[in-house]
Amino acid sequence: MDTHLEEGLDADAVDRWVQTASILHSNGDALDIAVKDGRIAGVRGRAEDRVNHGRLGVKDLYGWQANASPDRLTRPLVRVDGELVETDWDTAMERIVTRTRELLDEQGASALGFYTTGQLFAEEYYTLGLIAHGGLGTNHVDGNTRLCTATAAAALKESFACDGQPGSYTDIDHADVIALYGHNMAETQSVLWMRILDRLAGPNPPQLICVDPRPTEVARHAAVHLAPRPGTNVALMNGLLHELIAHGHIDRDYISAHTVGYAELEQRAQEYTPEHVAQICDVPAEQIREAARIIGGAERLLSTVLQGFYQSHQATAASVQVNNVHLIRGMLGRPGCGILQMNGQPTAQNTRECGGDGDLPGFRNWSNDEHVADLARVWNVEPSRIPHYGPPTHVMQMMRYAEDGSIRLMWVSGTNPAVSLPELARIRAIFEQDRLFLVVQDLYLTETAQLADVVLPAATWGEKTGTFTNVDRTVHLSEKAVDPPGEAKADLDIFLDYARRLDLRDKDGEPLVTWHDPESAFEAWKECTRGRPCDYTGLSYDKLCGASGIQWPCNEDHPEGTERLYEGGSFWSDASYCESYGKDLVTGAPLEPSEYKALNPEAKAVIKAAAYLPPHEVTSEDFPFQLITGRTLYHFHTRTKTARAPQLQRAAPEVWVELCARDAAAWGIGEGDLTEVTTPRGSVKAQARITGIRPGVLFLPFHYGYWDTGGGYGPGDGGRAANELTITDWDPASKQPIFKTAAAQIRRVSAGQGPAPAPTTTASAPVGDVGFRTAGDHTALADEEVSVGGGTATDGGPR
Amino acid sequence: MKLGLVLHELHHSENDLAQELLHASERHKVDHSIYHLGQDLAEWSRQHVREIAEIAGDYGQKLDHEPKSELATARRLRERGSEMLGRKGFPELALLHDLREIYTKACGVSADWEMLAQAAQGIQHLDLLAVVQRCHPDTLRQMKWANAAIKENSTQILVS
């Protein structure tokens, strides 16, 4: 059990411990907040929880300090004569409500867009979804989960016709082979990685396969490390499938009993011989064979997938091929045989379940009129009021509509698109338009908030109550520990206030939103999930309080939750029940209901083949490098919280760029030198870190924006945000922007004053000694209490 | 036998569809899904042009193996026009018009492929049938894409 308390505070002196889970990554680690004199004073892991058994990662140990940052927003702000000035809630909300009404009268709901996050609670997304879809009737709702986890959902919908993670974290305990595809687990879900390290250190360790262009900790522990050319994941996966099929590592009984589409896959894979794939991906053919031998020899195979696939070219097509490996090997729904299409944010799963990403809540299918009618019954509105004439508008399309002037009010909650969306010069130009009314609801005056017409101060984790669900479907309760600062309000209360002021009504003239606090919202959400795959009806705040998290579906039949989905090869893919009929992986065109019924009449899993296509932007003489962006262990998103936790900020204080020694020598760049990275869209200045990254590839962390530069919301004398450089392009099926396939140039600007400000402990580790090692100071000391066969031993040590 | 005539006509129609997709792509450079997918799907038609020219020799037709192309300057002009005007809200109706053109042209191409498939089966020309079986599914996907794009965009463009 890991604990970190503010300096000088003893665990015995803590007033109260309040139950919650991680908000700074997607793993869903359970923890308690220490409350001392009405303030948050530390955290400790919850030993009884199934997810983390008391362990915590660095972002949780230190990130809580951001709650008490002196620059928290404490009062609403409105723009007066071009300046943001403090005001009261009535004034701020009336501005929003007045503008909403004007636009509804002038244009209708198509003028309104809502862009939320992956960090609010289930109750809040469900409320927002009801207001936007059932109340206002707009189709323009999305979450920033579009940037991180949309492809996870899309890949699951393509293969299983429904979202919902087949596997469980416990599969790590049973697997004999674990394949991590574009998933730097050691940095994105460090506690889950510890679980793998436990296995590696114990008897019968599993073999790891790592696909990543960077020298991650995962790569260092892998039996085979494949570092393909960015943008070629589909070719690589097809190469692996080719080998599995050619060597008969397939389960023909499972394929014929539980899947459709195998014949096309077999045909497609034929052309992807290891030699052919080796040319496309620039990896040795023998490595592809060796990886396939290990995967093909597995008795219990676990696969995990993350941003290396999701944010790259052909994201959904590549991720679907990982599902296909399991389907043709019949390795699903048994201990150790799982798929984890990972999430990037703590509550991303809820964004998808509750309608925060534009999908209909409860995994209802917008193309199925009966599902729409059922939702209309739950909400007591006419079915025609719920927009379902087309797919929900994803955020990149919303930005286009804001650009062309047809979305005129955009409400951004809990996210910072002025740093996190691609091609920032364009994004800033859209937000700067006078004709766009921008509402931003956040904790701090982020880059996006600086561009807003109204800024609403929000409460955050530890200051409000709600539930959220991690990638393996574990639901946790997160309780309020302390009051929010000043006049800041819970996001739920803000949305409820908006609905009340708009006087939104159901079809009988009663208030549309029938709940008033987190628990009553949760009860309403439960009803919405009844009989759906993500069934929450067996859960309650009482049941979640004091105990371990519980995996959905949890209902009368499964009162203690469900560890694995799709046991015995039965799926939720019946045309009348499924969430999605699927899309064309190249064009993105949705399948018509009749097409889906013909394709999959017996509710099986769908094997979808895909051909490799070259990326839209390829290297050239002017832009000879491939640029990928990504994350580091110590920061989350645009650093709004992690930069306000001193230990985390010190570990990675400033942007850097990674390149390999060969390229550094060729371009005359040394460790720590200031460089300028350029693409056709902009430039970023960063100190160089020379690592074991794949030759020809540059890596930039995407966390760094401008709020702590003194430069306002944009670059002053040189870009700092990686998204100055990224391309406006997205995966046709998942609509996830492509952050990991752009052509770039680098040049040396000047000599460095020391090593790059990059961690030495992670995938950013330097190739040689740079005279500096990342380590915490005395304030970073954490306590680790180890339980050994029932007894406990205590060991304090630096983390 | 009139198969040569159909191939001649199809060669022309696929070239035309490729041009239509490319022009739409360039005219709507600021609409990124149209921009990127227009180019991707034009490439399918260009590939079909090569395949048709290849097999048309067997039916007495001498057709150009290279798809029609035009000067890069014309393309850049259209892209530049899109960037100048496309951010100010004028070209949205033109987008629907272009998608409609793509859809109807792809429908025509699809009908031609159907005719060829029927004839090829009737006289058991398996080489020709193989070409149809490779190409026609692409045409159907082009149609579905254009139709889906019309569905996705119509509401916003027409009511705002």
Structure overview:
The complex is a heterodimer of chains A (799) and B (160). By secondary structure, chain A is of the alpha/beta class. Chain A folds into 4 domains: 2-68 and 780-797, Phosphorylase Kinase, domain 1 (2-Layer Sandwich), CATH 3.30.200.210; 88-144 and 347-532 and 534-564, Rossmann fold; 150-342 and 572-606, 3-Layer(aba) Sandwich (Dimethylsulfoxide Reductase, domain 2), CATH 3.40.228; 625-768, Barwin-like endoglucanases, CATH 2.40.40.20. In chain A, the strands form 6 sheets. A 7-stranded mixed beta sheet of chain A has the order 6-5-17-16-15-7-8, with helices on both faces. In chain A, strands 2-3-4-1-28-29 form a 6-stranded antiparallel beta sheet. A 6-stranded mixed beta sheet of chain A has the order 23-25-24-27-22-26. The two termini of chain A are 13 Å apart. With 160 residues, chain B is mainly alpha-helical. Chain B has one domain (3-10, 22-159). Chain B has helices at residues 3-27, 32-56, 72-85, 92-122, 126-159. The longest helix of chain B has 34 residues, at 126-159. The chains are: A alpha/beta (799), B mainly alpha (160). Chain A: Residues 788-799 have a biased composition (Gly residues). Chain A: Its cofactor is [4Fe-4S] cluster; Mo-bis(molybdopterin guanine dinucleotide). Chain A: Belongs to the prokaryotic molybdopterin-containing oxidoreductase family. NasA/NapA/NarB subfamily.
